[in-house]
Every structure is written in structure tokens, then in C-alpha cells.
Amino acid sequence: MDHLAEKMRSTVLHAVDGLHVAATLESEGITDQIARDQYGYPDVFALADEVRYRVGSTQPIVATKVRTPIEWRAAIRDIGHGLLYLMPAAVFPAAMAFVGPRSLSLGLILAGAIGWVWAGGATWMAYRLLGRGFPGAAAKLLAISSFLAIPIGVGASVIVVVTTGAGYQLVLLAAGQMMYQMASGLLMFYRREDLLLLAMTPAAIVGVCYLIVGRPMLYIAIIEVVISVVAAFVVALCQTLKKKEGKEPNIRAGLRGEFVQLPAVLSYAALMAVFFLHSQAPYMLTNLEILLGFVPLITAMGVVEWRAKEFGTEARALLAKVRYPREFVGKIWVLLARNVGVCLGVAALLAVILLFALRAADMLTPAAVVMTASGVVLAGTFFLGFRLAEMARYGWLCGSLAACAGLHIAFTLLSPGRPSPLADTTVFLGSSLLLFVLFLAAMSQRLGQARYHK
């Protein structure tokens, strides 16, 4: 113990508080188990208290700034992401009339899955470069990945057309969807959601007009959608052309040491796409009311992203606010519960509105209610997923998603005949609840460790 105290002397004398010491101990590889087995203290926090006592630190506990005021403009931008995710749905009826129902469903699944993984990987690498102080390399990577996304989406759609006999309109649909996904990801990266909204609003308006007027508006709607998507893509690429100061390494050198984690990041994005899209695929052409069950979740995703960011800020503020390490563990759990509650509550409120609307339209079914409930659960699950990704727990994330998606897929494949919508959505609700529990279990292993919130 004396040896440890002496080793930590310099850290303790300059530490802001006991949590700082606890975080340093954790970074040295000292876990709660080591604190118990080797030093006889119940956990790292108790060990940190003892180290401070033995060193005789006389440094006053500094009342650091608790947290920055919430920047509501930034918060509104994050919350608005849900609307931006939902906006393309306004043009789906016109797109279905143009390319056909089968091509639309194949295109949404194919381009949705590829775009999810491709955009997720590109954005992750761009944030890594930005974090290392290389905004120019990040911009170059985003521009290249955006250009490459289109031929990849087109090539995959051609294969699907040849193998399934779907119409070649699918190729156009896949190209457009890839362009929109890359444009939206890029504009959100540069915090220019306003430009995305401006570019896509005309498309959404004509999409609604098509629903009202019908076929006479079809070609006007399609032309406007193409113009809006291309405009969003061009505007997004222009963001990468802004002049950057200073000399930067190339992309490969800038990402040195990061490629080890990239396969796990891509696997996580792929499994998330499988988990999300496979549950919708059976109902794209048959049961609109079940498909609409995800609308509350998609709309609430902006709130989920906002709270996931705020949680990191609030956790860091909590580290500076508490006086004793033990206070941190209890309060961080309260903070987590409050944020998960906000995500679940917003999604539940939107779900109630949707269910009333379905009832008014005489479209409410038990399967639609169950699928809507699944979306509410996933709002809390995705919040935990964002935080676990921040902690680089990709192994657990991938394993959990594979298990839960596999559970639902196995039920579908092993059922005699096609399962009823109610049975299918009920199993999916069960797999969503299991995913929530698994993510929460992973969070419980690290939530109380100060170093993950520094």
C-alpha cells in the first residue's frame, strides 16, 4: 500500500479530487477486484481515498465548473434529426408508383443496409481524424467515400435486378437513396442540418401533393425528388471543399492505429441494419399499419442522439461536482435512468399519438400495437448503444445484436408456415427487450468507473 501511495504521490498532489485519483488508478489497470484482493478495499474508489490519505494531500477540492449552459440551438439541431430521418418517407408513395412496390421494398432494404454500413464507417473515421486535429483529411475522406457510395449502391442493385428479375428502376432508386444517405450524414457531420432541410423540403411537399392529387402529379414529384436529392448531395460535397489551415498527413497516416477497431465498427453498423430492417421487410408491401409502428422511434431518434451527447457532458460535470468518489456511483446511475427515461418517454408519447391516429383511420391492429411498443423499447436501447459505442464496447454490442437478431430470424425460419403478424411482432418485441437488458448489463460493468467519463 505504501508503495502504491508513493507511486501515486505526484498524481495525488495535483489531483482535482478523489475521482481524479480513482480514474488514474483505473487507467493503471487497477480494478475493483484488484482493490479487494491485493489491497483489502471494497473498490477502486475506497482505495483512492486511502491513497490520498496516505499521501497527505492538502490540495483543496476545487469547485470546477459544473457544466456549460445548454446550447439550445445545437440541441434543436440534434432533436431535428428525427424529422430529417423521417422526411424521405413523404416521397415513398410517388417512388412506389414509379418503380413498383417490389422494386421499392428491395431498394429500401438493399440501399438502406449498404448505406447504413458505408456511411457509419466513413463518419466514424472522419470523427477520428477530426479528433486528431486533421479536419482537411476528414473532409477528403468524406468526399471520397460519398463518391464511391454511388457506384457501390448501383452495382449491388444491378446484381439484385439480375438475380431477382426486379425492374431496372431499382438501380435509379438505389443510387438516389445512397446519395441522400451520404448527403445527410455529411451535412450532419458539419452541423448544416439547415441546408439538408432546405434542399429536401420541396421534395417532401410534392410528395404530399402526390398523395392528395394522385397520378397527374407523379412525374412532377419524381423530377422534384431527383432535383432535391442531387442538390443535397452537391451542397454536402461543397462543405468538404472549404479551405483548411495547416499541413496535414494523408488519410492513411492520419488514421494510424485506428484501423484495428474499424472492422468492429462496421460489424456493429451491419448488425444494427440487419436487426432494424429484417423486422420491417415482411410488411413493406402488405401491412402499412405495422410499418408505421417505427415512426415514433424514427422521430424520437433526434432526442435519443441529443440525450446521448448530453449524458457525456453531464457525466463529466458530475465528476467535478461530487466531493467523494462514492457519491459518483449512485448519481451516475440516477443520471443514466433519467436519460433513458426521457428517450422512452418521448417515444412513448409519440407512440400514443400514432395509435390514436391509426384507430381514427380504422387501421389499428394488435400487431401494430406490439410493433409500436418495440419501437419505444428500442429508443432506450439505442441510447445505451450510443454510450456503449463511446466506451468502445463493440464486442458486446455485436454479440448482443447477433443474438437478438438471430433469435427473431430463427423464429421466422423455423415456424411451420409463415408466422402470423401478431406472433412475429411479439417475438420481435421480446428480442428488443432482451437487447435492452444486454446493453444495460454491459453498461453496468463500466458506468461507475470514472475514467470512462473523462
Q: Quick check: average pLDDT?
A: 85
Structural class: mainly alpha
Order of helices and strands: HHHHHHHHHHHHHHHHHHHHH
Count of DSSP-assigned helices: 21
Summarize the structure.
This protein is mostly helical. The chain has 21 helices and no strands. It has helices at residues 2-7, 9-13, 18-27, 32-39, 44-55, 72-79, 81-86, 92-99, 101-131, 135-164, 169-189, 193-213, 218-239, 251-254, 262-278, 288-291, 295-321, 325-360, 366-390, 394-414, 421-444.
What does this structure look like?
- With 454 residues, the protein is mostly helical.
- The longest helix is centred in the last third of the chain and has 36 residues, at 325-360.
- It is built from 21 helices and no strands.
- The chain crosses the membrane at residues 82-100, 106-127, 139-162, 168-188, 195-213, 219-238, 259-278, 290-308, 328-357, 363-384, 396-414, 426-444.
- Keywords: Membrane, Transmembrane, Transmembrane helix.
Show the helix and strand layout:
Blueprint: H1 2-7, H2 9-13, H3 18-27, H4 32-39, H5 44-55, H6 72-79, H7 81-86, H8 92-99, H9 101-131, H10 135-164, H11 169-189, H12 193-213, H13 218-239, H14 251-254, H15 262-278, H16 288-291, H17 295-321, H18 325-360, H19 366-390, H20 394-414, H21 421-444
Helix pairs in contact: 3-5, 4-5, 6-17, 8-9, 8-13, 9-10, 9-11, 9-15, 10-11, 11-13, 12-13, 15-20, 17-18, 17-19, 18-19, 19-21, 20-21
